[in-house]
Structure formats: C-alpha cells, structure tokens
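Input record, target 12 of the design panel.
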C-alpha cells in the first residue's frame, strides 16, 4: 500500500484532517493569514483556530475568548507576602519574580513546571509556592531527574525518547528520522518515537 502523502495545508477543509499532520508554526501562520484569522498565540492556539474555522466557519475559537476572572488582585504592583493567596487572576510578573528572589535567592527562575503549578493551584499561598519551588529544586538535583517536557513540544520529547533508545546515535540521526516521522499522518495528532521509526525511508 502506498504511503499517504502529507497534503498541501490549503487543500484541507476539516479540523480533524488538519490535525492528523504535523505543521510548522510558519505554515500555520501563513494559512491563518490566508483565511483571515488572528495569528497571535502559541503554535497550537493557531492550529486550534484554523481547525475551528474549518469546522464551524467562525473566526473566533473558544480558546480566543479569555476566561473571566473573579479576582481583581493586581499581580503587577500589589504587595506580596508569604500569606498572599494565589488568585484566578495570577500572572507571572516582575513583581512576583522579585518576591521569589527575596525568598529563595537570586538564582530563582520561572520554568514550565513551576509556572504550571502556579496556574493550577488557585487558593494556595505564596508560602506554599515557595515550598513547592524548593521541592522541585531538590528533585532536579537527583542525577536521574528528567525535566518536564511540555505536551505540545513533540520534537523535544521525540529527541529524548529517540536518544534514550539509541544511545549510540546523535542529533543528526534524530533530525533525520524526525523529518520522516512528522511527514506521516497521526490519528491523534501526535508524533511520538517508536522503534519502528528506524525502518522509515
């Protein structure tokens, strides 16, 4: 059976069809402009916007509508203390960064895992957040620790899994097989490493 070829993005007319394939952000931006859609946001926000347009004809995707917040707390300039409660209006601001540096030192840096924790733990306090940050740093000190890779970052996850399974290969091999892999369709829209990828040509 002939291998299904990656289509021209302009020929796709359904969200499901669009999401079967891997697209570069530059390709999605060009298609969004062609369709008269917003081009702001991360890669997957643009993908969802195009898919929603194909399926509904609406140029405004649900993810384009910012959720309403009940809190008026201003994370940019409000005084922060360990007792400050995380609100649904929380933002990673310079004010927050200064607070954490005052608590854990100048080495403090936001990372994906910690930013997700802050976003998902409304109702806890900044003291709880400091404790969680310190716990994360302890986990990172473990020689076997692996950082969290964001769900949407398929290439980084593919790289880790590929090199873990093929320690004698290098990044040139990763890029070669990733290029072959991402050219294939995927029912769930994700392209993950499989040992059979080494048979791709």
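The sequence produced for target 12 reads:
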């Amino acid at each position: 059976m002939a291998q299904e070829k990656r289509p021209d993005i302009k020929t796709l007319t359904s969200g499901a069809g669009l999401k079967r394939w891997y697209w570069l952000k530059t390709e999605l931006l060009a298609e969004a402009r062609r369709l008269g859609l917003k081009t702001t946001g991360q890669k997957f926000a643009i993908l969802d916007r195009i898919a929603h347009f194909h399926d509904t004809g609406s140029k405004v995707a649900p993810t384009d509508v910012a959720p309403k917040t009940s809190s008026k707390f201003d994370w940019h300039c409000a005084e922060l203390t360990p007792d400050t409660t995380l609100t649904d209006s929380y933002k990673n601001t310079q004010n927050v960064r200064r607070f954490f540096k005052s608590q854990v030192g100048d080495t403090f840096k936001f990372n994906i895992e910690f930013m997700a924790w802050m976003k998902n733990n409304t109702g806890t306090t900044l003291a709880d957040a400091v404790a969680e940050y310190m716990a994360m740093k302890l986990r990172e000190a473990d020689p076997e620790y692996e950082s969290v890779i964001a769900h949407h970052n398929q290439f980084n996850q593919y790289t880790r899994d590929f090199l873990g399974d093929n320690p004698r290969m290098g990044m040139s091999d990763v890029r070669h097989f990733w290029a072959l892999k991402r050219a294939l369709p995927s029912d769930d829209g994700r392209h993950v490493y499989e040992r059979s990828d080494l048979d791709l040509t």
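Residues 44 and 152 are 7 Å apart (CA to CA).
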